[in-house]
Amino acid sequence: MLKLILTFTLLAASAAVAGSPHELNIDREKVTVSGISAGGQMAHQLHIAYSDLFGGAAIIAGGPFGCADGLLATAMARCMGVTDDSYSITEKKAEIVGAATEGQLAGTDLLADDHVWIFHGTQDTTVAAGLSEKLVTLYSEFLPVEQITYVNDIEAIHNFPAQGAGSACTEMVPPYVGDCNYDTAGELLQHLYPGLEAPIAGVETGLTEVALEGAADAGLSETAYLFIPPACADGRKACALHLALHGCAQSAVQVGTGFMEQSGYLRWAEANDIVLAFPQVVPGAANPYACWDWWGYTGANYLYRDGAQMAVLANWINHL
Fold it and tell me: Which of 44, 47, 120, 158 is catalytic?
């Protein structure tokens, strides 16, 4: 346990964000994460593993912690378009509590005051609705149900539902943002940060490219993106920070900045002084669609604090 803490502290201290001209002042009590599909799985993993860092999570079309049990075959058999009863909430809760006791995950008591937002489109057949339901059930083992919002009545397929942006809601085309007359980004951010101001159209600032320390060894792009509202740029104001994770085939390597710019995150962030962090996965031999690791292609510890991608993202957020 002591070795793990020391290792994490040293890694966090050595993390760098080159290329950013800004000195940020982030309120550590206002750090949250969201993601869609594989990004949703990763957002959930990060929240469970680092509930000492993230105060809430939003998961779009994702499943429960450790659904794949470290095997791609299991991931495909019970964690995608179909699910079964082999995933036991009782057993997984015990596994999480045990891993937290050993220091592989944050203490589960830290989840108690967090807020969680979960979404599953009614027309989504890529990921089974039962997986989102298991996710809701698992979270309810650790935090009050009134802090969990589950949205499952929006007619959307397996894309990121937006309002006034993207392709037709029923189309699966890059960057996989659908104009479904539903503001997913706004809804999830309002749940994670109650009392947000409605955005004003047409005033967004640009994205800033930054270097991501340790990215290459974790199957990630060495270039990540930050969206920094003007009020947060000089470090005088303490701003919230939200980590947003793309889905498979949705990284900047594949679709440019389309997902970041069309999803709706930017306008809500600018209106409410929320810094956005957009790391990117790169395609590889074991991961041709640039998915976040939720089945173990980076190693057996992929869903714990010292997992390759988990540690890189946590160190980056800690540095910011």
Answer: 158
Residue 15 confidence (pLDDT) above 60: no
Question: What number of CA atoms fall less than 13 Å from residue 179's CA on the CB side?
Answer: 5
Catalytic residue among 114, 124, 183, 293: 124
Domain ranges of the chain: 27-319
Question: Is the pLDDT assigned to residue 110 strictly greater than 70?
Answer: yes
113 is catalytic: no
Active site residue 124: yes
Neighbour tally for 50: CB within 10 Å: 22
Q: Which residue has the tokens 């309810």?
A: 140
Query: Reduced to 3 DSSP states, what percent helix, strand and coil does the chain have, rounded to the nearest 5?
Result: 35, 20, 50
pTM for the model: 0.92
Mutual orientation of helices 308-319 and 2-14 as an angle, nearest 10°? Answer: 60
Q: Average the pLDDT over each of 23-27, 136-140, 295-299 and give the range with the smallest value.
A: 23-27
Active-site residue, 47 included:
no
